[in-house]
Every structure is written in structure tokens, then in C-alpha cells.
Amino acid sequence: MIPIKIFIVEDDELYGEMLKYHLSLNPGNEVFLYSKGSDCLKNLYKNPDVISLDYGLPDLSGHDVLKKIHEHNPKMPVIIVSGQEDVSTAVQLLREGAYDYFVKDDETKDRLWNIINKIKENIALKDEIDYLKQEIGKKYEFRKVIKGNSAPLNKIFELIEKAAQSNISVSITGDTGTGKELVAKAIHYNSSRNKYKFVPINVSAIPKELIESEMFGHEKGAFTGAIARKIGKFELAHKGTIFLDEIADMDQNMQTKLLRVLQENELTRVGGNEIVRFNSRLIVATNKNLADEVKHGNFREDLYYRILGLPIHIPPLRDRGNDILVLAKFFINEFCKENNIQLLKFSQGAQEKLMKYSFPGNVRELKAIMELASVLTNSDIIDENEISFSTTNAARDFLLEDNTLQGYTNEIIKYYLDKYSDNVMEVARRLDIGKSTIYRMKKNKEI
Amino acid sequence: MSTQTNYYNFEKLDTYVGGNKEVKIKLIEIFHRTAPELLKSINDSYQKNDLKNMSFFAHKLKSSIDIFNIDDLKTDIRNLEKFGKEEINLDKIPALLEKLNKIIPKAVEQISSEI
């Protein structure tokens, strides 16, 4: 148990000393006894963790002392101990923020003991939560967690800082696997909202019939299966951040509802009438080009402008230059630590192979490649043979090899001939070139 | 063999202090000092016809009477507190005070002799 400071405010000296003695039996309790309300108030600078307050003091009323204590610290638990049972007074004091109220009797000291132990547990839990929040904050110190030092990444860091310092909505774009959620979390945990929740919703992962309930909650009986009231993600994110991933996949009907909610900063749960106000920062992300989606009529233009806020584009890994190697080393080191294996290095060939690859799956793919290489290697050095790409988009990688325009043309025709079982007529039709050209190239062994 | 009535017992006090003699003596000393003061305040308030204050001091003396198990006064001190606070049964107050003035000094004397 953690040590705590307890104030006993009790004008009955005998009773006060008895309580002090009893509570001091726990060596973790530091107990102070005051016979007047004014003495208690004068000593609030000592920052007690809990106060036991006699309701009937000679100098100030219990109401007055409670009020002044809460002016000093609104969250201070104050237990009112009264000489007489008076339900209306008890209810009033509890309304005014008293932690508990009970009448002096033979059980008082034990009740006080138990309630203080509960308060201690709450303090310990609160400390633990504060500690964990700090740890999460540290975890998202973005310059540590988002690896790399390329110019595009440094530009993103600048934007994250700007976003974190304000409440502006943020729209993050980037290919799959580039780390959009990581950027969203970095903004949240480095902002003044970091004491509250970061609530992510993957729009494309929730069936469209359920998305409204998921986002805004529902009342009991709102639809078949709604057996109890459910609080939606927007309410959960009150004072924190709501992160709508894959926003471009939201259907039009829901887009309309979302727009209204964002404009009014209030929502109504499905099946309910109560208006719930909320205050959360909005961050959206998509791997699509939202402006194009607007042009094609798939996304509401008014919603687009409402959510655009500060746009942050995360470039694909292939455009982040040396970040590929920085990240590769990071993933290798993490994997080795987690699996208790010796730290591994890269051969020059492995590094060159990585730098030439297009990484269509971006950072997520690089991580998988490095973990596989760590397992495959038989020494403390990973060479190029252990770097294996399993991309589903291999066709584009031939562009990574330096070549002439004619060389690229030959590669394209070879690829199509393979794909269409050497059917020259079909390939000529698809590539819009003459079949004689293909025959000539074959005859000259160009392809 | 003494035939004097003991107005108190330490049963409740002992459960409170759990056999800690030092604390027990401290609480007895507090009783020795405060009970006569409170009794005087009760009498003075009644003399001044200040029944609210009389009730207030009776309330304060009540927990000492309970802790030292002065059984003869447990009901009377509550009645005195109630009558004064609600200003009822005023005719019964003098008898209650008389009993209080008789027993408290004796109880104080007896309890103090235990130190």
C-alpha cells in the first residue's frame, strides 16, 4: 500500500485522538488531527489525500469547510462524520461532492479504516493509470517511434508538431502500410488531449448497417439485438481523438450523417432522442485520393472540405530513400531482441537489393521481409539471398533495374507473351503494336 | 471490600486501543481534562437559557460517555441533547442535569484513579 496523508477534523478531542490512533495503526498512514475547520483549511497546503470531517464544528459549518476544501482541490475525497443521522443533510453534502457520509457510532473507526483503504486503492490505480499514460506518451514520441531521417519524413514530423499544438482536424493520406495510424497516434499522444482516449474506427471493416451504431451508439431496443444502451465511439472519444481510418469507404448515407454530426458537434444515438454534445479532435485517413473520389461522385464535397483540415501525405517507402535501411535495421534489431537471438547485420548486397525494391506493401512489408530474413540466415550477416520479396505486384519491379527504353519495351513484350501463352496476335492487340514487330523481335532474339 | 458503584468500564475503550496502555492513558487524561469542562459548559449554557449551546456540549460529552461505557448516562445525555436542540420537554431538563452533575464527577474521579 502507498503512504497517504489523512486529515481528521474533529472537535471532540477524545474521539479525534481515538480515530487518530486507530488510523495510525497502519504505518503507511500519516494522520493529522485538527479540532477546528479553520485549522484544517490553513493546513491544506500539506496536500492531504483524504479528509475525515466532523459535520458539527465550533467555528465553521461542515458545508463551508467542504466547499473551501473543494475550492482548494475539487477532487479531494472528504468523508463527513456526523453526530446525528440527518438524511437530508447527508444527501445535500453528497450532492456537494462529499465522498461519503456516516453517523458516529461504534463502527465508525472500522468504516473509516475500510473507506480509506478503498481510497488508497483508487489512488494507487490512478497513479498506475497516470504512469501508463506517460509511458504511452513516451511510446509515441514520434521522432523515436517513426523511424527515418529522410526529407519527406522530416516534413511529416513538422506537420505532426503543428497538428499536435492545435485542435485542427487532420487528414492523412498514404498507401497501405505507410503508417497512417502511427502518425494519428503520434498527433494525439503529443497533444493536450493525451489524457483522454484515442479511439480508432476502421470504416471499411464495419458492415454499413452497423457503422452508425458503432460511431454514435444506440439505445436499448433501437433494433433487433440492441439489448442495452451502447455508447458510440464518438462519445468514447470525448475530449480525446477520434480516428476514422479508410474514410473514403464510408457510404454516402453515412457521410451525410457524419457531416451533420461534425458540423453541430452533437449526436443522437440510434433509436434515441437525447442530444449528446461531444468535443473530440477528428483525424481521418485513407489510401485513396479523396479529391478524386469527390470528382467521381463517391465522396461528398462538403464533407471533404469539413474533414480536410491539415493534410498530411505519407509518401510510399520507396520514395523515402535511406529510410528503408534505417527501418530495416530497426526491425532486425527488434526481432533479434524479442527472440533472444544474436544481433544481425546486412551484407552490402542485401542493402542494395533492399534499396532497389519498390515495397508495394510499404513499411509493413519491409518488416515482414526482415523478420523472414532473420530466420533464414545461418550466420550473423544477412545477405541478398535471404532477402526474398513476395510481392503480388512484381511486374512493376522491372522498372527498378536500370535499362534503356528499348530494353524496357522488350521486357514488357516478353511479360505479355508469357502471360498470353506466346499468342502473338493477342499480345499485339493488347499492346496496340503490329504483330510483325513482335515476330521480327523474336527472329532477332531481342525477346 | 469496597461497595462503591463503578460508573464505568473499559470494555469498549480496550477494544478501541487494542491493549496499547500508552494510548489508553492518553485518552483517560483527555477525559479527565475535558469531561468537567464540558459539564461546566452544559450547566453554564442552561443557566443562560442557551439550550442550543447546551445541546451542542451535551453532544460533545456523549462520545466520552459512550467510550467509557458510563451506562447510567447513555440515554440521559441523548435526551438532554435532543431536548435542548428541539426545545422540548423543558421540564425534564433539570432532573437530567442533576443526574449528570452527580455521576460525571464521580466517574471522572474513578477513571482518573486508574492512571
Helix count from the secondary structure assignment of chain A: 19
Assembly type of the shown chains?
heterodimer
Q: Evaluate the radius of gyration of chain B.
A: 15 Å
Beta-sheet strand percentage of chain A?
A: 5-15%
Number of discrete helical segments of chain B? 5
Task: Provide the low-confidence segments of chain B as ranges.
Answer: none
Summarize the biggest pleated sheet of chain A: 5 strands, parallel
Structural class of chain A: alpha/beta
Question: How many distinct folded domains of chain A?
Answer: 4
Percentage beta strand of chain B: under 5%
CATH architecture of chain B: Up-down Bundle
Write down the overall mean pLDDT of chain B: 92
Fill in the CATH topology of the largest domain in chain A.
Rossmann fold
- What average pLDDT do the residues of chain A reach? 89
Outline the structure in words:
The complex is a heterodimer of chains A (447) and B (115). Chain A has 447 residues and is of the alpha/beta class. Chain A has helices at 13-24, 37-42, 62-72, 87-95, 108-139, 142-145, 151-164, 180-189, 208-216, 233-236, 252-264, 290-295, 301-308, 323-338, 348-356, 362-376, 405-419, 424-431, 435-443; strands spanning 4-9, 29-34, 50-54, 78-82, 100-103, 170-174, 198-202, 217-218, 230-231, 241-245, 266-268, 275-277, 281-286, 310-314, 345-346, 381-382. In chain A, helix 3 (62-72) links the parallel strand 3 and strand 4. In chain A, helix 7 (151-164) packs across helix 8 and helix 14 (323-338) crosses helix 16. The mean pLDDT of chain A is 89. Chain B is built from 5 helices and no strands. The mean pLDDT of chain B is 92. In chain B, helix 4 (71-86) crosses helix 5. Chain B is elongated. Chain B has a single domain (11-112), classed as Four Helix Bundle (Hemerythrin (Met), subunit A). Chain B is an all-alpha fold and 115 residues long.
